[in-house]
Amino acid sequence: MTDPDVLVLCYHAVSARWRSPLAVSPDALRRQLECVLDRGYAATTFTRAVRDPPAARTVAVTFDDGFRSVWELALPVLETLGIPATMFVPTAFIGRPEPFAWPGLEAWARGRAAGELRGLRWDEVADLAAHGWEIGSHTRTHPRLPDLDDRALAAELRGSRADCADALARSCDAIAYPYGALDARVVAAAAAAGYRAAASPPGPRFGHPALTVPRIGLYERDERARLAAKLSPSIRRLQGSPRWPPVARLARAVGL
């Protein structure tokens, strides 16, 4: 029997105004997801896609960071398309009134773009869950996990999982590693913390396939040829092989 084709998509924020790699417009989000559905993919949440895919072609749509724009703008799009999604939240930042602030966001922390860094409240996270979304961990404080010592690493992984369970009265089974940064020690710690599925960039699996599930990042300019290439099962298989780096350089050179 052929293994299911499990496609995992990665987004962050949704905005018609924010010119950032972190954001896609509602129109681009809708077009991209319609293209995925037109290719015969059945949508489900991340952990189910990883552990028990419901169809031969299964897609999981994921959002990192907990930007409020996902609740405001992405939820209506996905509801219209009948797609449940997974939101990975950095739990120490949820409910804070000030804009998100962690390394990598400095360019947008001041001026008009600062409003785009607003985060969700826990009641808004709960509303996503009520609409069938899975809520996963993005750690507590969004650090680069390989840089932490063992004690701090365990606190980030276990603490964020407990935060989600306490706030939502349901188990937290999945995590996305902040910045896509991981190594064998981080993956082992995620397993010890009780996670059943984890999202990562394409790359080494460290002996834990369910805890190193590769995702495809989609961006505003991903249309037509770019989108088709990213969705190709052959390309996605190639990304996990030693042959991928030269192919990636060629793709960038031709604008894919």
Task: Write a structural description.
With 256 residues, this protein is of the alpha/beta class. The chain has two domains: 5-222, TIM Barrel; 231-256, no CATH class. 37% of the residues lie in helices and 16% in strands. The protein has helices spanning 26-38, 46-51, 68-81, 122-130, 150-168, 184-192, 224-231, 233-239, 244-253; strands at 5-11, 13-14, 23-24, 42-44, 57-64, 85-89, 134-137, 174-176, 197-200, 213-214, 216-217. Strands 1, 4, 5, 6, 7 and 11 form a six-stranded parallel β-sheet that branches. Strands 8-9-10 form a three-stranded parallel β-sheet. Strands 2-3 form a two-stranded parallel sheet. Helix 1 packs parallel to helix 3. The chain starts with a strand and ends with a helix. The model has no long low-confidence stretch (mean pLDDT 92).
Helices and strands in order:
Blueprint: E1 5-11, E2 13-14, E3 23-24, H1 26-38, E4 42-44, H2 46-51, E5 57-64, H3 68-81, E6 85-89, H4 122-130, E7 134-137, H5 150-168, E8 174-176, H6 184-192, E9 197-200, E10 213-214, E11 216-217, H7 224-231, H8 233-239, H9 244-253
Parallel strand pairs: 1-5, 1-11, 2-3, 4-5, 5-6, 6-7, 8-9, 9-10
Helix pairs in contact: 1-3
